[in-house]
Amino acid sequence: MTCIIVDDEPLAIEKLVRQLKKVSFIEIKDTFSNSISALKYLQSNNVDIAFLDIMMDDIQGITAIELMKKRPIIILTTAFDNYAIKAYELDVCDYLLKPFDFNRLYKACLKAHECHNSKKDNKTTSNSHENDNSSNFMFIKTAYKHQKVCFDEILYIQGMRDYLRIFTINENIMTLQKFSDLENSLPKQKFYRVHRSYLVCIDKIESIENKRIKIKNEIIPISSANYDDFISFLKKQKILNN
Asked: DSSP of 212-224, one letter per residue?
């Protein structure tokens, strides 16, 4: 995967460059000392990941994310912990608090790699029905058994750190299965991953408002990065009027 680094501290950039050179699956394309230069670069160049500082002199990292028309996977690198909720709303892949060591950085890189693969899987299957599951159920591995789950009973699925919680009409089911693996097992026309941490059943949606979905009593965020594609998907399915 390719990446850029955006930080107004030269020493912070130098340290991150040294660390990332140890990660075999990441290639550094460029570094920037301000957000404006990085935003201009992203307008005409595609990269997979942006390592982005928050507190910068010109445009703060959070604002820069909102201004990105083509948004890569974002990993925030900051000394401040009070932006975590906003970062979650913007579907940031990871939030690294300075000073962080190589082990913590490597975990963030692995998470970004999984997000990258998940995006590729979505692009591959979005215009095809070939991988749709022809059955109406699947078996989910829980702590003690493989439990049958009917697709029509699933409301939504939430990713929670190292495990998933599947919310169904009758119960909630916990599993350690990878989000991308579970997503690929579901019928593509019935389910959509609207956020890094949420996948919803389309026909269980009660309303969509201000980039939020209501299912039962739960309000589920739609990430800014996924919103336009999600709306296009609903229109192609002819279940959303213009």
From this structure: EEEETTEEEE--H
List the one residue out of 18, 88, 23, 12 whose CA is nearest residue 49: 23
Residue pair 106/94 in contact (Cβ under 8 Å)? The answer is no
Strand partners for 96: 77
Which domains are delineated in the chain? Answer: 2-125 (3.40.50.2300), 137-236 (2.40.50.1020)
Phi, psi of 148 (to 5 degrees): -75, 130
Q: If the chain, 242 residues long, is cut into consecutive pieces of 10 residues, what is the mean pLDDT of each piece?
A: 94 95 94 94 93 89 88 92 84 90 94 78 49 71 84 93 88 88 88 94 94 94 90 88 70
Angle at 204 between CA 200 and CA 210, to 5 degrees: 65
How many Å apart are CA 223 and CA 193, to the nearest integer?
10
